[in-house]
Each structure stands twice: as C-alpha cells, then as structure tokens.
Specification:
40% helix, 26 helices, Rossmann fold, alpha/beta, 30 strands, 5 domains, 936 residues
Length: 936
Amino acid sequence: MQALLTWALSVSFWALVGGSSPSLASTPTNSDNTLGISLLYPKKATLYLGALFPIHTSRRDFSLGVDVCTDLQGGNGIQPVEAMLYTLDQVNRDPDLLPGITLGALVLDSCNAPSLALNQTLGFIKGFLAAQNMYHEPEFTCSDGSAPTFRGGHFDQVVGVIGGQQSSVSVEMASVLRVIETPQISYLSTSASLSNRDRYPFFLRTVPSDTTQVQAILSILRYFKWTYASVVYSIGEYGEGGYRELLHRASDYDVCFTSPAYRLARDDPDDHYQNVVRNLITNDAKVVVVFADSFVALRMMQTVRLSGQHSRFVWLGSDGWSYTTPKEVEAVAEGAIAVQPLAQRLPGFDQYFSSLRPENNIRNPWFPEYWQTSFGCSSTDPSCTKLSINSTGNYRQEPWLHFVRDTVYAFAHALHNMWEKHCQGKAGLCEAMAHSGHIHGRDLYQQLLHVTFQDVSNSTFRFQASGSGPARYSILNYQRVDDYTYAWVPVGSYYNTSGEPDLQLNKSKVKYRRQHSFPTSSCGAPCKPSQAKILLQDSCCWRCVDCQPNQYLNQTTQHCINCHVCKRPDPSQGICVDKNEKFIDYRSRWAITSLAFASLGIFSTVLVGIIFWVHLDTPVIKASSRELSYILLGGIFFSFIMTFVIVAPPTFITCGLTRFFLGFSYTLCYAAILTKTNRISRIFNKSPTKSHKARYTSPRSQVVIVTLLVSVEVIINISWLVYYTPSTKHLCDQMSNFRIRICNGLDDYSYIVGLIYPLILVCFCTIYAIKTRKCPGGFNEARYITFTNYTTCLIWLIFVPLYLSTGASDDIRIVSLALSLSLGAFVQLGCLFFPKVYIVLFKPEKNTRDAVMSTKRSSSYNRNSSYRASGLYPPETQAPHSNPPIFFLNAGNNQDIQKVPPPHYQDQSIVGDSHGRVNEVYMSAIQSRANNPSAL
C-alpha cells in the first residue's frame, strides 16, 4: 500500500519538480512569494531538520476559494525561526553532541493555514522520493540521464520535521508525514486528538496535551468555586478537541457549562459574533472559558468592547490566544486567567535577536521583510540599518520559544544516540546509521521516544507515553501594571507529571479589575451550611432548601439525610450525634409522687406489723394466722419497695430486680392468702362423718406450703432472667429530642412472664375465699379477699391499656407500673389488715373468743353446711342419732379448732335458743383450756 501511494505521489509531483533552486538570500520575500521561498542553513550540513513556521498569517479568498498568505508575524513567525537557528548553532558548536555531523535546517512558511501547510509538507515527500531514487534503485531519470532532485536537493537529507504551531496545521502535516515514516515534533500544538497513536504514529510534541490543559482549567474553576461557565471555542481541531475534553471531564470537577456552547470561526460574519456576545450577556454565567485560536478570541473580545460590556466577564483562556493581546482589547481582557505550557525564557536569545541586522542575517530570507515591517523603512536604506530591534520598544521574547529549543535538542540527542549505537565512536555519519545514505524514520522515532536531556530549567525532559511533553503549566493573570500598561503576570503553576495533579495559586497576586473582586459564577445562590442543594434541570443549577430538624447535611452529596431515630443533628447540622439521654429518676415530679405514695405504704405496713406484734396474743390476731399474716405483710412491703427500684435509673441491676420482684411480691402475697384460705376451708368444711382431723394445719406446715408455692415463682423468674438477660435499651421518637433509657423488655410483654403465676394464685384465692364465706367471723375473710382480688384485677385491667397506650417518651409508663404495685399493696393492706387493726385498737370488746367464733344467719344461709353453729338440723335431713358439732380451740395438739359432740338435746322444738346453747357449750368447752395461751 505504501509503495502504491509513493508511486502515485511521484507521478503527480515529479512534473512540478524543478532542477534549479531559487536564490534564498537575494529574493525579497512578501506574502505573494513566501510559499516558494525556503530557508536552508547551513548549505553543507550533513543532515537537515525540516520545519514549518507561521511566518505569515493567512485569510480566506472567497472569490478563489483558497487561503492566501497576508501579513508577516514577528513574534509567532520570525522569533521561532530564529530560536531554531540559534539552537542549531549551539548544537553544532557542542563537540560532545553529534561529532563529525552538522545538523541543519530547512524551513518553510505555513502561513498559519492548514491547507497551505499541507502543500508545503508535500515538499518533504518529494524530497523523500528523490532520496529513494538517489540512494536506492533508480526509478526516474532526467533527459540527460542524471537523477532528478527536488528544489536543487537537500530535501532528500531531511530526517525529521518540526511544526506546526497550530494543532490544525500539525494534523495536516502528520497525516502526510506518516506516509514516509518521518518523525514530526510540534512545539506548540496541544490538541488531544494528536495523541492518537493509530492515526498519527510518528507525531510527538514538546508541549503537553490539551487533556492536561483542560484539567488545569477545570482545577482553576473549582479553586474559585465557579460551578457554572460558558464556553466559546473555535472551529478546528484545537478548539473542538478542547471543547470535547471540557465536556468529558467537567463532571469530575463539579462544573457545568451553559448549553449550547458557542462555536466560532475566524471567517464568521459580524452578526454571528454579536449574537454570541448577546447570549453570553444574558446568561447567568460570569465566567467564559475561551478555547480558541488567537484570531477568534480577539475578534470576539473586540465585539464585547463594542457592546460596552467589557467588565461583564471573567475570561479563562487556553494557550491558543493568551500569548498575545492587542491593545484594542486590553481593557476587555483585564482580569483574564490563562493556562499556558510552562513559560521559560530562552537564555541568551534576547542578546542574539537584538544583535540581528539585515546585513548580518542573510541566512533568514524573511528577516528583511520583518525589519521593514518593524521600522517602516527598507532594509537597503542606510538610516534604517542603523536602528536596532530594541530601539522600538516593541520587542518581547515569546514565552514558549524554549519549546522550539526542546524540539531541536530532542532530534539532536536522538541522532546522537543512533550514532553511538551504530558508529562505534567514529566521527561522522556511518553506513550502519544512514543505511546507504538514508536514515530510516522508524528507527529515529524509536530513539526519540526514549530521549532525555536537560531543558532550560535544568529539569530532565522526556516524552510521556502519549508522545507529549511533561505536563507543566504556568497560570497567568492579565493585569493592569500602571494606568496605560497591561501584562500577563505569573500567579501560579499546574503540574501533572507524577500522576497527581498539583495546582498552586498565589491568590494574593491574582487580580480582577481595580477595586473589584472576582464575581461568583453559578446558577444557584450559595446555600447556608444547613441547607441542601436541590438540583434543577441543569446538574449545576440548584435551589436551596432547609434540612428538617431531624436531618443532617451530607457534605459530599449536598443532600439532607435523616438521622437515626435515636440521633439528632448537631447545631451545624453537619453530622448526627446521640440525643440527650433521658430516664425517670428520683428528681422527676412523677417519681416524687410515686415515691411519696410508696413511702406512705411502707410506713403503713410497718405500723401494721408493729400493731400485730404488740397484740400478738389477742383472739383476732390469732385467728388471722400470725405467721401467714407476716408473710403477707412482707409481700406488701416488697410491693411498696419496688417503687424505688422501678423509678431508679435503668441499669443491669435495677432491671433484673424489677423483673424478679414484680411477680415475686405478688406471689408472696397471694401464696399466703391462698394457704390461709385453704387451711380454713379444710378445717371448717370437713365432713362431720369423718372422724380424722385436718392435716397440715400447723403454723410450720403453712410456712412450708407458702415456701413451696413461692419457690415456683422463684424458679420461673430465675430461668427467665438467665434466658433473657436483663439489660437496658433506648426508646426513641423521631419528634423528640431525647432518647429514653429503659429496661429491655419493659416496652413489650416479656414482663408478663413473671405475672402469669401470681394471676393463677389470684384465681385460686378467689375460689377458696368463696368456699370459706360461712366460717365464723374471726375466720371469715371471704368478703375482704374477694374484694382484694377483684380490686387487684381491676387495677391491672386499667394499668395495661394505660401502659400500652402511653408514648415511649412519657414518664407515665414507668410511674403507672410503680403506682399499680403500690395500689395493689394498699388494697391488700386495707382489706386484710385494717379491719383487724381497727378492732384491736378501737373495738377491744370484739377482740374476744365469743366474737371471733360467732356466726350469723342470713337468708342465704345453707342449712346443709357442715359447720352450722345452731346445732339443729331440719327435720327432714337431721338423723335422730346425730348431734351438732361443737368447736373449740385445741392448741395442745397443734390444732386450733376441733369438733366435739355436744350433749344430746331431748327437746328439739326449741329452735330459737339453739344459737345460745351452742355458744354455751362452746364456752364451757374452752373454759377447760383457759389456761392454754395458744388456744387459737
């Protein structure tokens, strides 16, 4: 394929090849003939470096449909040419670099137009074909039999090409030079597309790629918190490639660009530029990123100046336009920030360039034209030649000339490495290196990829893997130096050579306009620290909303996030912190109320216990079963004491005690009541036909029975504590600022486990209370026990709904549990003990054996009861031989009450006196035991 293309190009171009070379030094140059003039220096060089510089500018001739060269450029054209020649002189004077080999330059004018640069680059292809024809098998001959040459030769000695300056020019050159495998190094083309190794396999550059320049621009936007910006870019590889990179990486820096972006060409009509400026003015964005060549950027700023909005924008520029700023737009560009590849002055170039005159610089054919343009006189005028470049005051070294130096040194060191590899230290160009007079471009390119040398800053230069130079940038700020002078002032740097971007800005040096600070540029007002950003249609536009009281602001996502139900946002609403802990304690009004109530109950319980102890031997106290009464008082005492444990701060100990004694205290009370009623039932409900006495009625037996009943509850509680270990937890409500510390299980039904057994005892107590309702008055507590049980059930029926319906943050839940225990204890104390205390203290006449053993008829009296005290049976049921039983106290055999047969009454018609007769017999029976103090 390459051979076919070479043949096609040779057929097309050999007709244009001439055998004579134009006079380089003697031919005056101008915009019309500059394309036919080349700079060749020195003429006897061993190898040449081709170069294309934009010595002239260009414009589009719409009548002809072609680009034509126009004005000569001093800074962008003549200076890089002279920088190359200056560097070649240094290379050739260095004895340690390319010994015996002279490196020369063959320079052409590109006129800064891609189409013209393409035509100029074709000359290197023609030279290549001439070299192939000369050093290899000849394919073409002249009429005289000689080998044809292009432009008198020397093009066939070009081993590499320097250029172009603009990316669009470099793209055209690279597309052609790849055909002949000639390495190309650009000194100022930054387009990211040129890093495509498939499309441009022999392209290198000493400047970094636009990829890193875009990163630098976006880093500046983020540094100043400019989240919203407009973009203006130029048509062509440079502007379009930069814009693509901006869009591709903007989201990584939290930057958005207005839509649409504005695309301009240098040949667009004025009204198009005006429309763009009007749209820029109406946008909210105050920052405009200009990724365009210098012609487009300066023309747009001129339009802004004419609109009178020169102070409206902050310009953020790329390197394409920020090297030079014409005076007519200086006021518009004031405050602009630009990113340029690291600017370094080329040492010694100022002295060299200032010493040039038309008469001593005959090697540069464009220098006389430059001299004439600079001074407005002919270079042949004696008065004109006496002037110097510094005399005008317009000279200023371009800050990027050191990149031209780097391109020359890169080729020189690569060739030197080839020489060292193939020539074995022999001076001059050897056959192994030149390959029959022709250096292979692929071999030279491989050497270029690994070349290293010291640049003007004494840093090591080497090409990166992408083929670009080190990513080092200068950050410049266009400032007013005095009332009439503006200048680009370095204010920082950007490096990305080690993979970690590093932006350094001296903010104190950065200036916008006099007495003005940099404006903000966003499509959303800055939110307060506790406000979230709600994104609108554009990802960088937002509105601010306040976070809710239970939310914090995520600084990464800028969203309000709900705190955990047990947490609250800190005062800045930046993070969530634990809510203040709250629990009912002894200082709470609810706790004080319940503790006062419990204290009254404890006092009452102790007082009743003392009264019982003082009157321990009275019939009323004896009839109430003294041992069981004290056990019952103990259970009541525990019920009151539990209030102090329940309202205490929840801990492992208090939670365990609450769970254990909540059911234990009730079990202790009702175990004693059940044992008492069961004992009385067994004694008084005993059938008169059975002669044996009731068993297990002694005080010791009653204590054992109570202990057995209570031990069941103890086993249940201990097992439950082991299975469900006591602990504390927090109950939280979203709208509360506190988290309530409670015992684990207090908010569910786990505490009911300890109450199941006492409830069973309550049921049995109720049954036995009913069965003993006809006992003698001193033993008949059915009404009191039944009332106690009913009241206890009523208290718990009220408590449970109240407990479950109360909010988790309400102290009533805890207090209601304590008050329920105290109320139940008060009911037991009042119903089972206060009547006896009342008799003992205020009705001593009833504290007798007769009163204790007395019984009364009622309309509901059960005539078949086995413990009737009348001693008479109805005629239809009473057997002739049966005798009514008589009750008396028998403490000698540990039985309080014993049935004895009364005397036989012959006259059974006396019914009304039966009650008195029974008491008579009963009292006579107990007289014999009057000396027994434990009769009951």
